[in-house]
Amino acid sequence: MKKWIFILAVVLLLGVFGYSGYQLLSYYTASTESQSTYDDLLALKGEIPPVTPTAAAPEVQPETQPELQPEAPARPQIPAGTVAVTHPETGEIHHVLPEFQELWLLNPDLVGWITVEGTHIDYPVVQSAANQADYYLKRDFYGKRSSHGCIYAREQCDILKPSDNITIYGHRMNDLTMFGDLGKFKRQSFWEEHRYVRFDSLWERGTYEIIAVFQTQAAGEDYFSYHTFVDAADEAEFREFWERCKALALFDTGLDAQFGDKLITLSTCDYHEDNGRLVVVAKRIA
Q1: 263 has which bridge partners?
Q2: CA–CA distance, 105 with 142 (Å, rounded to integer)
Q3: Whole-angstrom distance, CA of residue 267 vs CA of residue 169
Q4: Which of 3, 59, 116, 266 could make an S-S bridge to 121, C-beta 3.0–4.6 Å?
Q5: Residue 97 phi, psi dihedral angles, 5° rounding
């Protein structure tokens, strides 16, 4: 009897190890595939045009001129102004910035790009044109099933307008991809050195300053529906939203928001409690 118990215990132990190994391998594979996908998209994103120098570079004398290396063939460029998006309600036409044209042609759900210095956050931002809630929660940029998902804007937010507050979601991955690094902003010292967020929409470049970082719940007694705040009906509604953000803030940034300011709210999971959320609110400054 003891022999059979021992054999059964060994089999069970091997099964647990096998399943754990499979899970780790699956996660590693998904992580690698996801990173590869977004590395490719980053390579496709065009560079922001540099400022044209006002003075000509000094001429190099023939005797000191270095040997020229053959240049890699340039990727064909789409002429500026040829890709445009029309607002579905107003009919207003917005021309897509040159650096996003190739990406937008790959997926018209693209609405911008977000970058946060000091983190891995350097990703395209999408929004379901079909208004499907959380469509990209478990899908990558191409709509393929992925546990890492994609960085995406809440469906009700109007990026073209833009709305007073644009909520942007991302998974808090253990490999620190997507919004995995957002937890660094729990520390005031990190915020002090990395307080700016770059969020470029398809047609307009923007710089935002982080004005509040807080934790809340997605459900329960302390539930704060920050994500449902899109456009303020009046100054009082805007002030109510902002005061709630400040009341929950992990530290005082000393910064303020006023009616008429444009905000982005970065949202991800947090593990301080069940259904926890970590939220970073930033105000456009340029």
Answers
A1: 165, 283
A2: 12
A3: 5
A4: 116
A5: -60, 145
| Tokens describing residue 84 | 């445009």
The closest alpha carbon to 209, from 166, 257, 252, 244, belongs to 257
Contact 125, 170 (CB under 8 A): no
Measured CA to CA, the distance from residue 250 to residue 90 in angstroms comes to 40
In degrees, to the nearest 5, what angle opens at C-alpha 222 toward C-alphas 221 and 224? 120
Place of tokens 């253990």: 174
Architecture of the structural domain at 98-284: Beta Barrel (2.40)
pLDDT of residue 258 exceeding 70, the answer is yes
Contacts with 163 (C-beta within 8 Å, 6 or more apart), sequence order: 157, 230, 231
- Where do the domains of the chain lie? 1-30, 98-284
Q: Using pLDDT thresholds of 50, 70 and 90, give the confidence band for residue 244.
A: very high
Question: Residue 41 is encoded by which pair of tokens?
Answer: 């998209």
pTM of the model: 0.78
Other beta carbons less than 10 A from residue 118's beta carbon: 14
